[in-house]
Amino acid sequence: MRTRFAPSPTGPLHLGHAYSAILAHDMARAAGGNFLLRTEDIDRSRARPEWEEMIYDDLRWLGLSWETPVMRQSERMHAYETALDTLWQNDLLYPCTCTRRDIDIALSAPQEGTPVTGPDGPVYPGTCRGEHCGGLPCSMSARASDKHLRLDIGQTRGYLDHHFDAPTGGTFGLAFLEIGLNRPGDVFTSDEEYRNRIGDVVLARRDMGTSYHLSVVIDDAAQGITHVTRGEDLFEATRIHVLLQRLLGLPTPVYHHHRLIRDEYGKRLAKRDDARAIRTYRDDGASPGDIRRMVGLA
Ligand code: GLU
Ligand code: ZN
What we know:
The protein is α/β, with parallel strands linked by helices. It has ten helices and twelve strands. It has two domains: 1-75 and 262-298, 3-Layer(aba) Sandwich (Rossmann fold); 77-254, Rossmann fold (3-Layer(aba) Sandwich). Strand 2, helix 2 (49-61) and strand 3 (71-72) form a beta-alpha-beta unit. Bound molecules: glutamic acid and zinc ion. Glutamic acid (GLU) is lined by residues 6-8, 40, 216, 230, 234.
């Protein structure tokens, strides 16, 4: 068993993160496996080395230890670019110049009906699909790096059927095994759900050259992660991750989504909630055992 904790160094470690990290760590230790870390710093405008240092210091203080070296996403752009090239060559990506506002306007057109919300917000209406490569397959031109790149989700099934074993009859779909608290068992997403409820997600942001979805899938595979433990806010996004794993020929780990730690008002703990930062509890004299008790893991 190989588990991981993958913090974004955009703020202090708070109780919710500590819960996630301890769960992943204890799971690996109990199974005689390995616990790994990964710094998710692709958003260079928000990531700070000071936060990274503080997060690791808090994790050590909590009594966690991990395999080194720690993987850092900002050093892995070549891996993301290789995957984007593969998808681009196979006409699974297209450039998009829409702003959030363009998308809202397109979705408010009467024929669009009620907008569906997917894992990344409103499902993209497909405005730029087939527009920006001069009416020719995008693979005939160089991969655009100055625009968002979206996955042409309607093309993915044909690609998978062609390149991998085509399913024989029945409903086409993809599944992952969920072992988390609320819904243990196989989670299935049909081809139709991919098209209607997820849509053409952004895989490379113009300002980053990659995206959370693409990087997390490539790096979980690169680190040999067998069990992904993370908050249930990422449960729906896992459907995207499974599709990307299939498209890129990567294994699908087992997923353990856990409940989110909420404050006494039921509000989700955000990173800016400095009052809940582990550092604040430390300064107030709390012990690592106190933190475990606070998140229900003592
Ligand atoms: N870096 C992500 C976050 O801090 C975690 C992503 C994941 O665990 O898949 O929210
Ligand atoms: Zn667009």
